[in-house]
Design goal:
The protein is α+β, with helices and mostly antiparallel strands. It has a domain of 75 residues. 21% of the residues lie in helices and 17% in strands. The protein is built from 3 helices and 7 strands. The strands form 3 sheets. The protein has a 3-stranded antiparallel beta sheet with strand order 2-7-6, covered by helices on one side. It has a two-stranded antiparallel ribbon with strand order 1-3. Strands 4-5 form a two-stranded antiparallel ribbon. The longest helix is centred in the first third of the chain and has 14 residues. The chain is elongated. It starts with 11 loop residues before the first helix and ends with a strand. About 21% of the residues have low confidence.
Protein backbone atom coordinates (compact mmCIF):
# COMPACT_ATOMS: atom_id res chain seq x y z
CA UNK A 1 0.00 0.00 0.00
CA UNK A 2 1.38 3.40 -0.91
CA UNK A 3 1.60 6.26 1.55
CA UNK A 4 -1.02 9.00 0.92
CA UNK A 5 0.34 12.24 -0.47
CA UNK A 6 0.38 15.40 1.64
CA UNK A 7 -2.58 16.77 -0.37
CA UNK A 8 -4.70 13.71 0.52
CA UNK A 9 -4.52 14.25 4.26
CA UNK A 10 -6.98 16.28 6.36
CA UNK A 11 -5.96 17.67 9.68
CA UNK A 12 -8.36 17.13 12.58
CA UNK A 13 -9.94 20.59 12.30
CA UNK A 14 -10.61 20.27 8.55
CA UNK A 15 -12.03 16.76 9.00
CA UNK A 16 -14.36 17.99 11.77
CA UNK A 17 -15.40 21.00 9.69
CA UNK A 18 -16.17 18.83 6.65
CA UNK A 19 -18.06 16.32 8.81
CA UNK A 20 -20.24 19.04 10.35
CA UNK A 21 -20.95 20.56 6.94
CA UNK A 22 -21.92 17.13 5.63
CA UNK A 23 -24.22 16.48 8.61
CA UNK A 24 -25.86 19.90 8.25
CA UNK A 25 -26.48 19.26 4.55
CA UNK A 26 -28.06 15.87 5.26
CA UNK A 27 -25.31 13.89 3.55
CA UNK A 28 -24.24 10.43 4.61
CA UNK A 29 -20.62 10.15 5.73
CA UNK A 30 -18.85 6.83 5.26
CA UNK A 31 -15.39 6.15 6.66
CA UNK A 32 -13.71 3.16 5.05
CA UNK A 33 -10.72 1.14 6.16
CA UNK A 34 -7.32 2.60 5.30
CA UNK A 35 -5.69 -0.76 4.57
CA UNK A 36 -7.73 -1.30 1.42
CA UNK A 37 -8.75 -4.77 2.44
CA UNK A 38 -11.95 -6.48 3.42
CA UNK A 39 -15.04 -5.06 4.93
CA UNK A 40 -18.21 -3.67 3.49
CA UNK A 41 -17.85 0.06 2.78
CA UNK A 42 -21.58 0.70 2.37
CA UNK A 43 -23.09 3.05 4.94
CA UNK A 44 -25.00 1.53 7.81
CA UNK A 45 -28.69 2.41 7.93
CA UNK A 46 -29.63 4.90 10.59
CA UNK A 47 -31.70 7.93 11.38
CA UNK A 48 -31.40 11.02 9.22
CA UNK A 49 -29.10 13.61 10.73
CA UNK A 50 -30.75 16.61 12.31
CA UNK A 51 -29.27 20.08 12.30
CA UNK A 52 -27.88 21.40 15.60
CA UNK A 53 -30.66 22.36 17.95
CA UNK A 54 -32.86 19.51 16.68
CA UNK A 55 -34.57 21.18 13.73
CA UNK A 56 -33.30 24.64 13.08
CA UNK A 57 -32.92 27.82 15.03
CA UNK A 58 -29.39 27.16 16.27
CA UNK A 59 -28.11 26.25 19.71
CA UNK A 60 -29.18 28.25 22.75
CA UNK A 61 -26.90 28.46 25.77
CA UNK A 62 -27.83 28.42 29.43
CA UNK A 63 -26.92 31.67 31.22
CA UNK A 64 -26.00 31.82 34.92
CA UNK A 65 -27.84 34.41 37.02
CA UNK A 66 -29.97 35.23 34.03
CA UNK A 67 -32.31 38.19 34.04
CA UNK A 68 -33.51 38.44 30.46
CA UNK A 69 -30.40 37.63 28.41
CA UNK A 70 -30.45 35.21 25.47
CA UNK A 71 -27.44 33.41 23.96
CA UNK A 72 -28.18 31.68 20.66
CA UNK A 73 -25.66 30.63 18.03
CA UNK A 74 -27.61 30.50 14.77
CA UNK A 75 -27.51 27.60 12.31
CA UNK A 76 -25.78 29.93 9.81
CA UNK A 77 -23.05 30.72 12.35
CA UNK A 78 -22.65 27.02 13.14
CA UNK A 79 -22.36 26.14 9.45
CA UNK A 80 -19.81 28.90 8.77
CA UNK A 81 -17.61 27.75 11.66
CA UNK A 82 -16.07 31.20 12.14
CA UNK A 83 -15.42 33.13 15.35
CA UNK A 84 -18.48 35.03 16.63
CA UNK A 85 -18.85 37.95 19.02
CA UNK A 86 -22.32 37.02 20.30
CA UNK A 87 -24.59 39.75 21.67
CA UNK A 88 -26.60 38.22 24.53
CA UNK A 89 -28.61 41.32 25.53
CA UNK A 90 -31.98 39.67 24.84
CA UNK A 91 -34.72 41.35 26.94
CA UNK A 92 -32.30 42.69 29.58
CA UNK A 93 -31.88 46.44 30.06
CA UNK A 94 -28.10 46.25 29.54
CA UNK A 95 -25.77 44.48 27.08
CA UNK A 96 -23.33 41.61 27.43
CA UNK A 97 -21.35 39.83 24.75
CA UNK A 98 -19.55 36.48 24.52
CA UNK A 99 -16.58 35.88 22.22
CA UNK A 100 -16.65 32.37 20.71
CA UNK A 101 -13.71 31.08 18.65
CA UNK A 102 -14.10 29.13 15.41
CA UNK A 103 -12.98 25.94 17.17
CA UNK A 104 -15.61 26.50 19.88
CA UNK A 105 -18.30 27.05 17.21
CA UNK A 106 -17.38 23.65 15.75
CA UNK A 107 -17.63 22.10 19.24
CA UNK A 108 -21.03 23.73 19.82
CA UNK A 109 -22.26 22.44 16.44
CA UNK A 110 -21.15 18.95 17.51
CA UNK A 111 -23.13 19.45 20.76
CA UNK A 112 -20.01 19.39 22.91
CA UNK A 113 -20.00 21.39 26.13
CA UNK A 114 -18.51 24.89 25.83
CA UNK A 115 -18.53 27.32 28.77
CA UNK A 116 -17.79 31.01 28.15
CA UNK A 117 -17.67 34.10 30.36
CA UNK A 118 -19.54 37.17 29.12
CA UNK A 119 -18.27 40.72 29.07
CA UNK A 120 -18.63 42.68 32.31
CA UNK A 121 -21.42 45.24 32.02
CA UNK A 122 -23.63 46.86 34.67
CA UNK A 123 -21.04 45.71 37.24
CA UNK A 124 -21.51 41.97 36.64
CA UNK A 125 -20.92 39.12 34.19
CA UNK A 126 -22.48 35.75 33.33
CA UNK A 127 -21.32 32.22 32.52
CA UNK A 128 -22.86 30.91 29.29
CA UNK A 129 -22.94 27.14 28.78
CA UNK A 130 -23.62 25.53 25.40
CA UNK A 131 -24.15 21.75 25.06
Amino acid sequence: MSKPSEGDLFDRREFTRQLILAVLSGATVTVTACNGGGGDSSPAPGPSPMPPGGGGGGVTGSISGNHGHTATVTDAQLTAGNAVNLDITGQADHPHSVMITGDEIIQIAARQRVVKTSSTDAAHLHQVTFN
